[in-house]
Amino acid sequence: MSLSNLAAIDAAHHIHPFSNMKELNAKGTRIITRGEGSHIYDAAGKKYLDAFAGLWCVNIGYGRPEIANAVFNQMNELAYYNSFFGTTNPSATLLAEKIASHTEGQLNHVFFTNSGSESTDTWLRMARVYWQAKGQPEKRVVISRRNGYHGSTVAGASLGGMKHMHGQAGADVSDIVHISQPYWFADGGEMSPEEFGLKMARELEDKINEVGADKVAAFVGEPIQGAGGVIIPPATYWPEIQRICDAYGILLVTDEVICGFGRLGSWFGHQHFGVKPDLAPVAKGLSSGYLPIGAVLVSDRVADVMINEVGDFFHGFTYSGHPVAAAAALENLRIIEDEKLVERVRDDIGPYFTKAWKSLEDHDMVYSAENVGLMAGLQMAADKTTRARYKKADDLGSFVRNVCLENGLVLRATGDRMLASPPLIITEEEVDFMVKVTRMGLDAAWKVRADYL
Ligand code: PXG
């Protein structure tokens, strides 16, 4: 099958997620055919360093035969069985134990889903059912953040703070309200990042008082916002959020779909920031994307009520605890453990990456190049002292991304921020290549910057 044939078939039949299909069909989709280590290859044989790990998920890199074998063996042994009517399968049970073992006792119980979005729907229902069972059914309101991302189901789109998503088919789930994000570059003004972090966290307190603590079920936030642009909160933010959730008896939910499984140099993002969530949705790095699987990690506080007070929780998916997806995830976690990838990000490749990425701050286009572990954002600014922004920010980000792509590097752009999230197995040479090509993109942008002012 020729490349142009495949692109034509795709244009005729395949509707892509988050895509302008008219534009995409006109220019033709890129067809990715192979992956190995930190690299992907397109149908024309062109090689790219995938500094985005697919979609923030291929933590162990592409092409690992261990996972293929684990999946093959599990499919031959037991391709599917459900966990609804008093049954389980060994892979699902052992996976629950394995995940819990990395939460330091904080999140001892696991409910399986197939994606981050399903995990969002699951914890939202669970949080409300928890308060019902505690005799406070009016505690239903969930507070989340503008420019947060929690998935694309109706609940995910409602909980997320993406205006363009709310604008399409609405933010339909009731009793969800939003507060500001801790994005100091954009909104911090003359405040120090520390002052600003406290101010943003205290918006939660203000919102709880406005709604009434007796009506608020939970607060949710990504430890570091991913799709929103790798917004790394000031150090004062999360401890203050924890204080407020404790003071008002609100469940704390950390959305670990991106931060979980090593990306920040800790098993989970909440551990990096030193907070103790009651619930935590995960997906992506749980299987490194080899098969779809997600979960909600549940603390003893919530699980005790769900198990001892609720009775039946009328919720679940045909593929909750799917044996093959669970086998892939178990093998993925074995690899992360055996190859000490979390420690590698914390102590070795993470610090190397920090130094390399930060070196881009000398570039005229760049205000800051920040990261935690292997989750990185680069902020472009039209004026480095005033933090004035390029007016055509979306086009500018796309321009830099396209130059990188032409030169064999996959980076992500969100407005005037460039985002990176490479596989945890990335080598020093690959980091050097990544920074070199990013600099090429920035150099090219500098030459045409007037077009974006
Ligand atoms: N929570 C977070 C924090 C996520 O990043 C989800 C939930 C939903 O997961 P699923 O598996 O249902 O997609 C995500 C997903 C982007 C992008 O453009 C990010 C995600 C998905 C699609 C695009 O950065 N994150």
Number of domains: 2
Largest sheet: 4 strands, mixed
Number of helices: 18
> What helical percentage do the residues reach?
40-55%
DSSP strand content: 15-25%
Radius of gyration over all CA atoms, rounded: 22 Å
| CATH level-4 homologous superfamily of the largest domain | Type I PLP-dependent aspartate aminotransferase-like (Major domain)
Major sheet: arrangement of strands: 1-2-3-13
Structural features, described:
The protein is α/β, with parallel strands linked by helices. The chain folds into 2 domains: 31-60 and 342-452, Aspartate Aminotransferase, domain 1 (Alpha-Beta Complex); 67-338, Type I PLP-dependent aspartate aminotransferase-like (Major domain) (Aspartate Aminotransferase, domain 2). The chain is built from 18 helices and 15 strands. Helix 5 packs parallel to helix 14, helix 16 runs parallel beside helix 18 (428-447) and helix 17 (393-406) crosses helix 18. The protein starts with a helix and ends in a 6-residue tail after the last helix. The model has no long low-confidence stretch (mean pLDDT 97). 3-[O-phosphonopyridoxyl]--amino-benzoic acid (PXG) binds at residues 55, 115-117, 120, 149-151, 222, 226-227, 255, 257-258, 283.
Topology:
Elements: H1 3-13, H2 21-27, E1 32-36, E2 39-42, E3 47-50, H3 53-56, H4 65-77, H5 90-101, E4 109-113, H6 116-133, E5 141-145, H7 154-159, H8 163-166, E6 176-179, H9 184-187, H10 193-211, E7 216-221, H11 237-248, E8 251-254, H12 269-273, E9 279-282, E10 294-298, H13 300-308, H14 323-338, H15 341-347, H16 349-358, E11 366-372, E12 375-380, H17 393-406, E13 409-410, E14 412-414, E15 417-420, H18 428-447
Parallel strand pairs: 3-13, 5-6, 5-7, 7-8
Antiparallel strand pairs: 1-2, 2-3, 4-10, 9-10, 11-12, 12-15, 14-15
Helix pairs in contact: 1-2, 4-14, 5-14, 10-11, 16-18, 17-18
